[in-house]
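Input (structure):
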């Protein structure tokens, strides 16, 4: 907080009578002597002198204003308040005493009364810095950010080189989610006071949130002994963002004992380990996140993906199932649950997940195809047919859906329709071996073995090692 000096002396008009004027001049000299003690750095002696003057003349404006000021300077704001109130009652427009009284109110946790005094000063002297600054701090504490911004901006116009004002203006902008403007003010504060670690910290974190490479220098300056978790984590991210992954990983690994119970730290470490190809170590770090924060959505998702890629489908299914329950609006979680469950042999769970995806996003043809295929495998021919037709309604040349609808026709013994569907599938995808095989089987049932063998021979040229093509071709040739 900024304190303003009270007046060093005050003109007191003498009244008629020589002896009274002489006493007045003596009192004024004692005021001047007491003020001189303060100016000489003898604050305690100055307080005793003004206390004596106040005891002798309780209504003396000089004694009231000076003693109130000195009490404020020595952190005895409670004693300062009544003295300054009496002084301002005598001279309501004394700007310095008004400011000191506002500061005393602020120090005694009376922000409303403090703000009233600061605003009164600004009506008398709009270009006075301190009332703008102090009003801004009150508005900031009240979370009245628009008013705080206005006051701090006025203060910066009056004192452009005041680092504290720029910093506080940055805090107000940040609270209003005006991150670019906040970062600009924090940078000004840090550049004005390069020795101040707090200003460097604020600038670094603000730039880190904006993913600006300039964050790195400020964060390194703010780091200190490494005990500030926010700075430490942001610095690691800044190293990674700057392409210095090895530095980032080395730095994070060095923080493990300090950040042992910080789930954000372990998550970032897991991401870095994964990016560096250290999959088992990444898995270990993600598991540590979930020990500390069992419902961390990102950790559940990332560990699930890691396990899925490693072929650990059952555990991946468990994680994606939990994630879907915690975050029911996440389509990605349901897509991943369906894939993991299908690979784990939990077809019913996969079908349920895919149905939810399709209800939310009917245009997801790839998911609808997986759903249709799973329904077919489960024996739900009508359900499979419905979804194959839905895919074909959006894309009549989808080879997988044509093959699927061909299988439905084949199942119903609608052989001409099945033949047409399979032929359309191989036209849409000339190397589609499954469709060739299904077409040959259909032709065989239609008593066209020669044509069926030709289809299989064509397929064998495309996929010489396909076991189904080879087996059916041998069977048909031997029976022909």
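Output (sequence):
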């Amino acid at each position: 907080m900024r304190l303003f000096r009270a007046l060093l002396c005050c003109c007191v008009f003498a009244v008629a009578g020589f002896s009274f004027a002489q006493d007045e001049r003596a009192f004024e000299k004692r005021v001047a002597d007491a003020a001189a003690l303060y100016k000489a750095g003898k604050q305690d002696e100055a307080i005793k002198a003004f206390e004596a003057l106040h005891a002798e003349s309780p209504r003396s404006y000089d004694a009231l204003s000076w003693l109130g000021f000195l009490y404020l300077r020595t952190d005895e704001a409670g004693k300062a308040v009544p003295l300054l109130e009496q002084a301002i009652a005598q001279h309501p427009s004394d700007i310095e005493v008004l400011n000191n009284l506002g500061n005393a109110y602020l120090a005694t946790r009376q922000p409303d009364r403090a703000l009233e005094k600061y605003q009164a000063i600004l009506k008398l002297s709009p270009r006075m810095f301190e009332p703008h600054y102090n009003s801004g701090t009150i508005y900031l504490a009240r979370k009245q950010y628009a008013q705080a911004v206005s006051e701090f901006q006025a203060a910066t116009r009056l004192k452009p080189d005041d680092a504290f004002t720029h910093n506080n203006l940055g805090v107000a902008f940040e609270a209003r989610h005006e991150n670019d403007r906040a970062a600009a003010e924090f940078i000004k504060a840090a550049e004005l006071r390069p020795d101040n670690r707090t200003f460097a910290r604020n600038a670094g974190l603000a730039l880190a949130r904006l993913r600006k490479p300039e964050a790195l220098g400020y964060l390194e300056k703010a780091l200190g002994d490494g005990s500030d978790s926010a700075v430490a984590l942001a610095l690691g991210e800044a190293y990674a963002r700057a392409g210095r992954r090895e530095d980032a990983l080395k730095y994070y690994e060095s923080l493990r004992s300090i950040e042992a119970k910080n789930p954000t730290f372990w998550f970032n470490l897991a991401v870095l380990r994964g990016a560096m190809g250290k999959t088992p170590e990444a898995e270990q770090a993600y598991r540590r996140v979930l020990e500390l924060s069992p419902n961390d959505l990102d950790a559940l998702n990332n560990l699930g993906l890691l396990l899925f890629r490693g072929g650990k489908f059952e555990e991946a299914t468990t994680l994606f199932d939990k994630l879907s329950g915690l975050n029911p609006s996440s389509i990605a979680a349901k897509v991943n649950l369906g894939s993991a469950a299908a690979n784990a042999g939990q077809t019913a769970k996969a079908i349920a997940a895919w149905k939810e995806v399709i209800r939310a996003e009917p245009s997801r043809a790839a998911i609808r195809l997986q759903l249709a295929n799973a329904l077919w495998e489960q024996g739900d021919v009508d359900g499979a047919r419905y979804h194959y037709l839905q895919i074909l309604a959006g894309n009549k040349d989808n080879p997988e859906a044509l093959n699927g609808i061909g299988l439905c026709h084949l199942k119903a013994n609608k052989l001409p329709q099945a033949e047409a569907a399979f032929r359309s599938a191989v036209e849409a995808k000339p190397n589609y071996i499954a469709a060739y095989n299904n077409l040959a089987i259909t032709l065989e049932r239609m008593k066209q073995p020669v044509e069926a063998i030709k289809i299989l021979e064509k397929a064998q040229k495309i996929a010489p090692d396909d076991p189904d093509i080879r087996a059916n071709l041998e069977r048909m040739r031997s029976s022909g």
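Notes: The chain is about 75% helix and 0% strand. Residues 363 and 394 are 8 Å apart (CA to CA).
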